[in-house]
What does this fold into?
Amino acid sequence: MPVGLQIRVDNSTNPINNSTNVTLTATDSTASMGPRYRQNDWVKMAETREEDLQFDIAIVEGDIMISEDRLAVKSLWPEKEGVTSIPYKINDGLVDRKRTILAAFKLISDQTCIRFHEYTNEINYIEFISGTGCASYVGLQGGAQPLYFGRACNVGNLCHELMHALGLHHEHTRPDRDQYVTIQWDNVVPGKAKNFVVKKGDTQDLPYDYDSIMHYGTYYFSSNRNPTIGSKKSGVQIGQRNHLSPLDITRLNKLYQCE
It folds into this structure.
């Protein structure tokens, strides 16, 4: 972890260390993980599992470890010889999940100019570490950058975290989000309202994306089985963890100046 880097935590003043048994919240899918999801059912997703955990050291917005504000979107991984290829190292406890990690890479590299390669001796790299859930910093932090990958998380969940590591924030916290969705504050788990607070930052002049892999699902952090996020546009579903949306792809390619 970079020297001097502090992690903002909920209900705790202890920083997260690189222990393999650290307990984190997870980000999860409303469509591809755990109990089958139906639009009118409430399903307790892994992104809200912190309510069941003994130690709640999840960070900001459920799965983001941050050291600065939303403008961390500017902390990009560098290009070398015309290619942005990000080094990664897999913790010993996750060797059996390498196929899942490679599948998450593929969701990104198939659609963008971003590549991933195994760590050799680079200064900056992503280190996949075991955890109860999934969590990531936003953007390049420097040094060995932990990305927590729990057993509860699938390919889409991990892709979501990699998108954070590449510099993208949750779509539902965009400055203009109230034009597109309504937050049902009365349904949010007490103490978790901060997960839905609008953040200042760069939208890259791209439209709001209901289909983004970075958007919360309808029932995330619900306290009463009722929706916490409602769309102002009829006929759309939000919060999938299955694929990069067309706008996710555009956003990454624009951010990293892909041709």
In short: Confidence is low (pLDDT under 50) at residues 1-44, 48-62, 64-73.
